[in-house]
Amino acid sequence: MFKGWRRTDKGIFEEFEKQIEEMNQLVEKIMSETGKEPMVYGFSMHIGPDGIPHVEQFGNVRQESLEQMTGKPSLREHDVREPFTSSIIDEKNKELCITAEMPGIRKEDIELNATENQLVIKAESSDRKYFKAITTPAPVDPDSARAKYNNGVLEVTLKLKGGSKPERKTVKIE
Asked: Quick one: fold of 41-160?
């Protein structure tokens, strides 16, 4: 039944080697078609100062709707990554602390622009690009911005204008 299985020549292993070589060629073809950058996609979730959960995406893969053409959503790779960011309100010091992870970038390659309601992070090196516009959960003073960059992690601190929480107004239901 299995007589030819244990031959002294390569026997069954010759077929394994052929299949492994075919798989290697297929993987090389796929890798060359996807480009030099790895595909990165993720999301983070946190509770905002208003008590509402916020979900943010990061990476270089975006979900783009192709429903008009195919009827199905798809993921597509871009050459610009959206860094993973985290925003924390320090109520004691009345500051907003924003942290962004951007490995492979030098401090000189980072450009920050702040307004009262938004922080824009833009970074570009020879092999990586990052971009993210972050809407602040409360108005901030852009003139108070301080930033540090160390080991691929950017930390930006902005003073809050007024209170640390957005004002709420009770709405009467008629």
From this structure: Immunoglobulin-like (2.60.40)
